[in-house]
Design a protein that fits this description.
The chain is of the alpha+beta class. 19% of the residues lie in helices and 41% in strands. InterPro entries: Anthracycline_SecMetBiosynth, Glyas_Bleomycin-R_OHBP_Dase, Glyas_Fos-R_dOase_dom, VOC_core. It comes from Nocardioides dubius. Residues 3-112 form the VOC domain.
């Protein structure tokens, strides 16, 4: 089973979004530059999501991310099941790819560099 691990919200103004979520829910963040802030877990040891600066908010809501140990096998399973996997990209914490399910929902799968 591959669980939901991370939810990424696209925001139009990162500073305002961080202020909103901090005030509304007492969220704290890890800053990764001017375009991204990770949402710290309640214990502060990990992250449960992120705020990604974007030009538009994608219809359908936030990007739900799944964590997998084997990205190639997961990509194959998605495609075999009828999904469309997109390009694998590297980021400072690891690698990920996004995919669309047969209904058109966009999700992502990642593997941390420290795993």
């Amino acid at each position: 089973m591959i669980p939901i691990s991370y939810v990424e919200l696209t925001v139009l103004d990162l500073v305002s979004a961080k202020a909103f979520y901090a005030a509304a829910f007492d969220w704290t963040f890890n800053d990764y530059g001017p375009g991204y802030a990770g949402i710290r877990s309640a214990d502060g040891d990990t992250e449960v999501g992120g705020l990604a600066l974007g030009d538009v908010v994608t219809p359908g809501g936030p990007l739900v991310l799944l964590e997998a140990d084997d990205l190639a096998a997961t990509r194959h399973a998605i495609e075999t099941a009828g999904g469309v996997a997109h390009e694998l990209i590297a980021y400072p914490g690891g690698q990920r790819f996004e995919f669309t399910d047969p209904s058109g929902n966009r999700l992502g799968v990642f593997r941390s560099a420290h795993d």
